[in-house]
Amino acid sequence: MLAVLPQLVVSGIATGMLYALIALSLTVGYRATTVVNFGHGEMVMAGAYALFVFAGFGLSFAPALILALGLLFLWGALTQRVFMRPIISGPHLSLAMMALAIGYAMRGGARLRWGSEVVTLTRPYSQDVFMLGPMVVTMDDLAISGFVLVLMGSLSILFYLTPVGRLVQAVFQSQRGAALVGLNVHAFHAMMWGVGAALGAAGGALLGLFLPLSPDMGVWTLVRGFAAMTLGGFGSFHGAVIGGLLLGVMEKLLGFYINTVFIDITAYLITILVLLIRPAGLFGRQTVVRI
Amino acid sequence: MLVARAVEAGYPGKQILFGVDLHVARSEVVALLGANGSGKSTVLNTLSGFVRPQAGSIAFDGEEIAGRPPHLVFRRGIIQVSQARDLFTDMSVEDNLRLGAWVRGGAVAELLDSVYRSFPRLAERRRQQVRLMSGGEQQMVALGRALMGSPKLLLLDEPSGGLAPAFVNEIAAIIKALKARGIAMMMIEQNIKLALSIADRFLILRNGRVSEHHDTRAGRASEEEIVRSIYL
What we know:
heterodimer; A: mainly alpha; ABC transporter involved in vitamin B12 uptake, BtuC; 11 helices; about 75% helix; B: alpha/beta; Rossmann fold; 9 helices; about 25% strand
């Protein structure tokens, strides 16, 4: 039984990278606006379908991906500007309901168009398998991990080493303070929702490499992204990444050693346990969260 | 420099200001006095764009700015230091100061030097997290951050509020130094002695209306009379 452990960890890390990306995309939107986007799963779904549509125009993977991310950036920014901004100072529940409703509407739109079709993305690489000592590493594992690591590296530079990162932190700490130093906070919110949506879309594109697309895939991704974010600590970038990796590994371990049903419920269990035992997560601080 | 005429403003369902007229000349310091709830903070928030006026006009250097959002008002050089200070408390003093210069730009190193000369205490603590500082020191960061934006007009909302007496004197000395540098200011201040020692003129606000205005340069105003005007 223990001989399988390294293999499970490797597979778990690859899946966890994907969760980390989705948690990170949720965190970007949350850090900038202090509002959790409960419709974020549908941004992930829309990213995957947008890539499918652009690839259908005959574009190769990379340009189709860039266009899909650009489209989702615009859609995320537009969603914030048109639907969230008018109610931003309203009750927290209104914001949560609005985000959920937009997500459901997007899912409905996808069902209308693709509800009865099995849609898959074509990998831009061959499905090779490598041996790493006794462990099997698939090309999917490498592609996902590599892409996410490059994206995380770029984001780390952006958020920790540039003035843009300081602005994101500033808005997170005090929106009024950010306005007092002359920042157009509304435009900044819209832009960061766009960035969050584009990152979520990148997660959707990666997910679509090894799973068929479905209009309902957003729920699956939101639950895992949310669990990773909760485990790592709300608002923490590195917490989102570590939370995602831990979730990916735990799913594999519990699913193998206890029961396969744990693959589906680990995210829910983690969310429940963390909120009960340590609501701030591993790296978060106890704060009042706008939902 | 700033001329507001017949300004009416408030919040949804509650009008606070009823036809407020005021002006601030270049290099002038005007104190805004009044009881709690008289509308003083709403005046500052309306001038800085956080509250949209329902009627009236606000001209700054001849340009109409009524209803402009805060970031556009800021770009014109009207910079507010709020009562809550609204600092970035998890960041260092220097990060807070640098963010103050983010929009209006300028020679950031020179601006920092100038702020550190005005606030030597901040220079000593430039790497310190703001959340770990005392109220008086945080007030200095808030003032310094506003100065980093090279203000033409500073709006100060109770700069001495909640501070220990030693800090009140220090903040008063700093504001006087800013006045000597020719920075125009409109300040709300509960400490009437402090307000009168700095301001060229003062206005008394009562129920959202300017009920009195005095020129402190014309003669020494009696503090007792002023308190009576405000509260009785």
